[in-house]
Amino acid sequence: MSPTPPPAHEPASDTRFDYIVIGGGTAGALMANRLSALPGKRVLLIEAGRRDDYHWIHIPVGYLYCIGNPRTDWLYQTEAAAGLNGRTLRYPRGKTLGGCSSINGMIYMRGQARDYAQWAELTGDDSWRWDQVLPQFMKHEDHWKLDTPGQAPDGFAQWHGHRSQGSTGEWRVEKQRLRWDVLDAFAQAAQEAGVPASDDFNQGSNEGVGYFEVNQKSGWRWNTAKAFLRPTCYGRANFEMWTSAQVARLLIEPQADGSRRCTGVQVWTGSEMVNAHANTEVLLCAGSIGSPQILQLSGIGPADLLHARGIQPVIDLPGVGQNLQDHLQIRTVYKVEGVKTLNTLANSLWGKAMIGLEYALKRSGPMSMAPSQLGAFTRSRPDLAHPNLQYHVQPLSLDAFGEPLHNFNAFTASVCNLNPSSRGTVQIKSPRFEDAPAIAPNYLSTDDDRQVAVDSLRLTRRIVAQPALARYRPEEFKPGPQYQEDAELARLAGDIATTIFHPVGTTKMGRSDDPMAVLDSRLRLFDGAGEAGQPRRTVAGLRVVDAGAMPTITSGNTNSPTLMMAERVAAWITAAA
Question: Which stretches make up the Glucose-methanol-choline oxidoreductase N-terminal domain (predicted)?
Fold first, then answer.
């Protein structure tokens, strides 16, 4: 049996620790695990949400009941976007132990090697290149193909980790426990359209079509709380965890040499405000929305914004909350005939009963489904040097997330631009830590992004027109075949597109001479924008470790790259300790 979780915080006289980790999500759970393994070092983990003891967190299809639920979601909304024709979007972020890994699509995806080459260029640090970060992905991976000797193809172990291969093995990767005829036909149609088959999206070039691998274990969601907290941290005497505790601000103190140091955090426990102090470091792991919000509330950010919100600037750092990037998916829907989809299966009492029974007996079937099952990576134009599109294909359709399934058989082929040029912002609205920030992704705000949207819709039509799908007589339901002109398709993309929940970049790492860089290449916070030609100091005792540190978005789902970044930072800290 796993050790009993430590109790939620109760007022204590001793609030001094060696390390304080803010956020028990994807990065924070790993950071807490690695730092609490240091002998003699006291570690505090602070999580604004509750424990991950809600049953829908662990049943894979439970994301339907976690997103939009205040028990597990911050319930953010974006600002109205011109590129979306004035629409606002629901913007889910995990508010529970495990963070977004408790409510996300569970897809294991590293991105492309070129993503990390770009990071190396933007930071001036070659240690961010693919061959340098690959061991950090593998360090905690436990890949199903390596469970049995001889099961994996030759050479597979050079790309993937497993407990038997020396990996710490906390992060389980498994194949999905279902298949659909209509998805198999889409995969064949994609190949007929020139997209090669792939059985591994994680070897540096993810081009191809195939079923996604997922972070599940025996049909259950595998979140970072189960992977990194529950088996180890709960049994360590030097580990303490406060849940339902929200950080109001960081404590920044001037030093004798004119520099600054983060000495701790101010935390609202639900009944009192407590100052917790860190002897060594504070690790801000609150995510691409939460981390810039906490920095701005602490007086760290664009001085003009802080003054306007009634906050005295402590560090004028203009990049905080800028550079927001996200993957916007365009959801095309096709009616089909002569094949089962989840629409009709789940729209009957008998079908629902059979789905529940299959999961209860086998941990398989629709209740074990990730939100997307089939994936494809390809190019919007043949002259591109790399795949710039990702498809998420599902054997179902609905008007919008959370709405009922349609009463006809259909599939959804959602396509996103992997490398959008649109940039948005995260800005506090008030000096109150309880108030949600303004989130403005500025989707489809550039000509390039609008053209990629148009090209991707045309490519989807070309794939669906291939012989492999002809027997199911696909009929375009959304956006509709009547729309053919570029201007029409660009406008329709704004009408039907939605986020795929991958915000990054709001506290980006970069070179010292980039005034918009928030962090150095080791994720330490810069002490101001600096002067031209002069090296920039960093704030002692503070790093930001989450997807906000990415200077550019990875070419795929962002959860596992965030884990990789946390693994790197933990290695640097433990080596120094």
Answer: 287-301
pLDDT at 3 exceeding the cut of 60: no
Position 335 pLDDT exceeds 50: yes
Give yes or no: 162 in active site: no
Question: What is the model's pTM?
Answer: 0.95
- Please pick, among 143, 160, 327, 502, the residue that the annotation labels catalytic: 502
**In this predicted model, what pLDDT tens digit does every residue of 91-118 receive, in sequence order?**
999 999 999 999 999 999 999 999 999 9
> Tokens for 49?
């949400």
497 φ/ψ angles, rounded to the nearest 5 degrees? -80, 155
What is the Cα Rg of the chain in Å?
23
The end-to-end CA distance of the chain, in Å, is: 31
Q: What is the pLDDT of residues 147-185, one digit of tens each?
A: 998 888 989 999 999 999 999 999 999 999 999 999 999
Q: Which long-range contacts (CB under 8 A, 24 or more apart) does 127-130 make?
A: 127/521, 128/521, 130/204
Cis-peptide, bond into residue 479, ω within 30° of zero: yes
Residues in CB range of 297: below 8 A, 6 or more apart: 248, 249, 311, 428, 431, 433
- Residue 524: both structure tokens together: 């330490």
Nearest to 192 by CA among 458, 462, 391: 462
Residue 322: alpha-carbon gap to chain centroid: 18
Helix (H, G, I), strand (E, B) or coil at 501: coil
Residue 291, token pair as written in the block: 């981390």
Q: Given the DSSP bridges, would you call strands 213-214 and 171-175 parallel, antiparallel or unpaired?
A: antiparallel
For 177-211+328-417+442-502, CATH number out of 3.20.20.140, 3.50.50.60, 3.30.410.40, 3.30.420.40 equals: 3.30.410.40
Per-residue CA distances from 500 to 115, 199, 390 (Å): 19, 23, 11
Contact 24, 52 (CB under 8 A): no
Helix or strand holding residue 353 (H, E): helix 349-362
Neighbouring CB atoms inside 10 A of 116's CB total: 25
Q: How confident is the model at residue 14 (pLDDT cuts 50, 70, 90)?
A: low
- CA angle, corner 181, sides to 178 and 183, nearest 5? 80
Domain ranges of the chain: 1-109+222-323+504-561, 177-211+328-417+442-502
- Fold type of domain 1-109+222-323+504-561: FAD/NAD(P)-binding domain (3.50.50)
